[in-house]
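Posting for a labmate who doesn't have an account.
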Amino acid sequence: MASTSDIRKGLCIRYNNDIFKIIEFLHVKPGKGPAFVRTKLKSVTTGKVLDNTFSGGSKIEDVRVETRSYQYLYPEGDMYHFMNTDDYNQITLQESAIDTPGLLKEGTIVTILFNTEDAMPLSVDMPASIVLEVTYTEPGVKGNTATNATKPAKVETGAEVNVPLFINEGDKIKVDTSSGSYMERVKE
């Protein structure tokens, strides 16, 4: 058993007869009344996200997890295939287990969390950022900006990312996988 002081991003807990992964949390200590922790939980079985508040010092049941490195191979409908980089065994996961499946590029190394009790895969942790090539974007018009103007761009995985006006087709960009937002242009 853990307490609310042990809450951190990525922690898996058992709550309401389901296993949830903590996406966001905020420790709140108001001037009047007891402290509490406001969390955003994502179900690892259904993919639903819910907001929950835990009172300060309350006990939560954490789930023991094990991490393994896997390489993303290919999609098949709403199923995604991964290969263990150590023993080359392959597993297939639902799209709901992946936070940003649109940014997943073939060959990317990801970390998969497994429940140590039953060896069930819980969720996929993407790398912090990924480099993708822009396959389509409208040309930027000079003088059409006030400040920080962006335009939509389609990347090689099929996802759409808002980029600055100076990005053209064929450019490689670095994308933040947690928010799906543009970080910088990559020169090679």
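Reply:
Got it, the structure tokens are right above this. The CA atoms of residues 77 and 95 lie 9 Å apart.
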